[in-house]
Amino acid sequence: MKIDSALHYATSVQSKTVKSKSSRNGSRATTTTVLGDNVELTGTSSRMSELEAQLADLPTTDAGKVEVIRQAIADGTFKVDEEAVADALVQETVEQLRHKQNR
């Protein structure tokens, strides 16, 4: 499973000019109001960023398992579980079709 580390922290501020209706004497007043959105990062958010960095440093393969399989292939004792392979292919196809339907 790949964890997307594209978390970006941003704040945005919008300004809006509000014009009041003409007063009795014909003058117009203009008021500028600044509306802002505040973003407050919690400790959980900071911790998630730290964990993502740690996960990026972890190896993606189990070297011991790879060596066992490599040796079994070299010895001619490696057996493929056809049912497990077929089930995994079917499951992956179903997930891909669901993903396409959700677009």
Structural summary, described in words:
With 103 residues, this protein is an alpha+beta fold. It folds into two domains: 1-58, no CATH class; 61-103. The chain is built from three helices and two strands; from the N terminus they run ββααα. Strands 1-2 form a two-stranded antiparallel sheet. The longest helix is centred in the C-terminal third of the chain and has 20 residues, at 82-101. The two termini are 21 Å apart. Mean pLDDT is 77; it is low at 1-18.
Descriptive key words:
single chain; 103 residues; alpha+beta; 2 domains; two-stranded antiparallel ribbon; 3 helices; 2 strands; 47% helix; elongated; disordered N terminus
The biggest beta sheet reads: 2 strands, antiparallel
What distance separates the N and C termini?
21 Å
Give the count of helical stretches: 3
Main sheet strand line-up: 1-2
> How many strands appear in the DSSP assignment?
2
- Taking pLDDT < 50 over at least 5 consecutive residues as the criterion, the unreliable ranges are 1-18
H/E element string?
EEHHH
Shape: elongated
Mean pLDDT: 77
* Percent range for β-strand residues: 5-15%
Q: What is the count of structural domains?
A: 2
What radius of gyration results from the CA coordinates? 29 Å
Helix content: 40-55%
Structural class: alpha+beta
